[in-house]
Amino acid sequence: MLSKRCALVGGVILAACLATPISPAAAEPAPQSASPTPPPAVVDALERDLGLSEQQVLARLANEERAAATEATLTSQLGASYGGAWLNDDASKLLVATTDPNTTATIESQGAQPVVVTRSLAQLDAIMRQIDQAPRRARAAAALWYVDVKSNSVAVQAPTVEAAEALATAARVDRNAVSVSATAERPTPFINIVGGAPYYIGSSRCSVGFSVTKGSTPGFVTAGHCRLAGSRTTNPTGTFQGASFPGNDYAWVAAPGNTPQPWVRGSGGSTVIVRGSTQAAVGSSICRSGSTTGWRCGTIQQHNATVTYSQGTVTGLTRTSACAEPGDSGGSFISGNQAQGVTSGGSGNCTSGGTTYHQPVNEILSVYGLTLTTG
Q1: Which residues are part of the catalytic machinery?
Q2: Does residue 33 surpass a pLDDT of 60?
Q3: HEC per residue, 41-83
Q4: Distance between CA atoms of residues 225 and 356, nearest Å
Q5: Phi, psi of 196, deg, nearest 5
Q6: Which of 22, 71, 160, 335 is deepest in the core (most CB within 10 A)?
């Protein structure tokens, strides 16, 4: 199952093996149009993976773009009462949670559907932090935990209900705010610079997430677990300037002498122009590019998920239904034309289906003071 350049560690495939970078040396053809119309390769992948027609894909992408802008506006307007937001199954309606019934008119004025809940998103995030800081033994026995805005709770999943219960108990959280369940998921990091092309660290292969700059220095972001194999990269040549794993799963590589490009490589030589990095809502469609499996799409299931890899716990990930395999690690996750994150790890594969997690790109940009290369 694994490339000889990748390692399966404790059932977790390191995402490094998944990256698909844009290498200046590869001389990718520059996109010919600045049109926001999604490239045919992206439309085709969404049709295939979500079971939609072309018309449905285009309508969904338009709805998701409007929803992202609406969510950003309401997050600010609702303040402490904001409880999260998500799209319904066909992405035709944005639902926004609030703890204050007096704000429902504000939500409706933006064309969204209000949902009055008990706990704000800030309160749910605080519960996540408690679980993230629980004793290591309890965390190691669980598979993942995440904020589930749809149920206004934090979900804890483990191989057994007892193990999930044990983590919730060890974290000393409000049990009314936590759901526990058994899962067959066994997240594994996927180890292997445009977004989606391979790069190498010694004998290991990873994928590039997105092109970035720090001042006048070009480079790219990728998965933090890729750094474990060494500090230098080839094709393109670069040096890891910062990396965090476990805890987080992100890194950035400075690659002087190379030219950062504002696109992610798709199938058949196509490219997707990166326009920004606005976070998409739960329920939005999302696609990832990696050097092993190319373009694969799904939907965003949850933000702020924590998973347990054999090397330790990684927090703040986004859980998606897009599949990935070893060698795709570090590669690009993009929704419409908005960069979302770099591939961390997951469960399953692209034959039988799977779940994949990404490290949100905005956190990486903020931590290292990087500027995303956009078109």
Answers
A1: 225, 249, 329
A2: no
A3: HHHHHHHHHHCCCHHHHHHHHHHHHHHHHHHHHHHHHHHHHEE
A4: 15
A5: 105, -10
A6: 22
0.85 cut: is pTM over it? no
Location of structure tokens 């990718």: 28
Cβ atoms of 36 and 72 closer than 8 Å: no
Distance CA 210, CA 291 (A): 14
Per-residue pLDDT at 26: 26
Write b or e for each residue in 67-99: b if 16 or more Cβ atoms lie within 10 A of its Cβ, otherwise e.
bbebbeebeeebeebbbbbbbeeebeebbbbbb
Rounded to a whole number, what is the largest CA-CA distance in the chain?
59
Give me 317's structure tokens.
């990930």
Q: Write the pLDDT tens digit of every residue in 54-87.
A: 999 999 999 999 999 999 999 999 999 999 999 9
| Opening angle at CA 143, ends 313 and 68, nearest 5 | 80
The length of the chain in residues reads 375
The residue among 91, 125, 139 whose CA lies nearest residue 247 is 139
